[in-house]
Amino acid sequence: METSKRTEIIELAIRARERAYVPYSNFSVGAAVLTAEGEIFTGCNIENLSYPAGLCAERTAIFSAVAAGHRKFQGIAVSGGMKGEAAKDFCMPCGMCLQVMSEFCEPSFPVLIVKNEQEVQEYQLRDLLPHMFDSLDKG
Ligand code: THU
Predict the structure, then answer these.
(1) Sheet harboring 40-44: ordered strands across?
(2) Is the pLDDT of residue 139 over 80?
(3) What pLDDT digit, counting tens, does each position of 77-128 carry?
(4) Quick check: CB of 47 below 6 Å from ligand 1?
(5) Which of 46, 49, 89, 137 would you label with 16, given CA atoms 20 to 30 Å apart?
(6) Has domain 3-128 been given CATH number 3.40.140.10?
(7) Are the C-beta atoms of 77 and 13 separated by less than 8 Å?
(8) Does residue 93 have its Cβ closer than 6 Å to ligand 1?
(9) DSSP string covering 28-71, please?
(10) Is 85 considered catalytic here?
(11) 107 CA → ligand 1 middle, Å
């Protein structure tokens, strides 16, 4: 991933938190995914009164990209914290979001966990989901 694109997805993940719809948890998450072609898609968490109907920020971003025709990705940035506040911790992606990443991304896929522009932890997908479900043939 180019340094300038890395910086861009970090900043966009932080900014995407502002669009989170989180009346139930009050916890806002933003994500920005960089496609193989160099395009960036952002996502936020979107909650629902029927709680399981809500969607995480990472899947919102990835599904938006897939719906626009992208299936190959260079990296994702994620940032989360209490709504209206700067992130206080590194917000790790949940298991379902990691499983969705594993559908489209290689084990070496970079996952950037963003507290702020200066404090970023970088993982590979394989660090966070070493044993993903992959028994069905994807075709
Ligand atoms: N959330 C995300 O958006 N991404 C994750 O990986 C973990 C959790 C959201 C879901 C819910 O809206 C809120 O954070 C609290 O769980």
Answers:
(1) 40-44, 27-35, 73-82, 110-114, 120-124
(2) no
(3) 999 999 999 999 999 999 999 999 999 999 999 999 999 999 999 999 999 9
(4) yes
(5) 49
(6) yes
(7) yes
(8) yes
(9) EEEEEEEETTS-EEEEE-B--SSGGG-B-HHHHHHHHHHHTT--
(10) no
(11) 22
Over residues 3-40, the pLDDT tens digits come to 999 999 999 999 999 999 999 999 999 999 999 999 99
Q: Is the CB of 77 under 6 A from ligand 1?
A: no
**C-beta separation of 32 from 38 below 8 A:** no
Q: Report whether residue 97 contacts ligand 1, using a CB cutoff of 6 Å.
A: yes
Tokens of residue 69, six digits: 């025709």
Which residue, by CA, sits nearest to atom 1 of ligand 1?
56
Q: Which two tokens stand for residue 97?
A: 């979001």
What is the residue extent of each domain of the chain?
3-128
Nearest to 105 by CA among 78, 125, 81: 125
Q: What is the residue with the minimal CA distance to atom 9 of ligand 1?
A: 56
Determine the atom of ligand 1 nearest the C-alpha atom of 25: 15
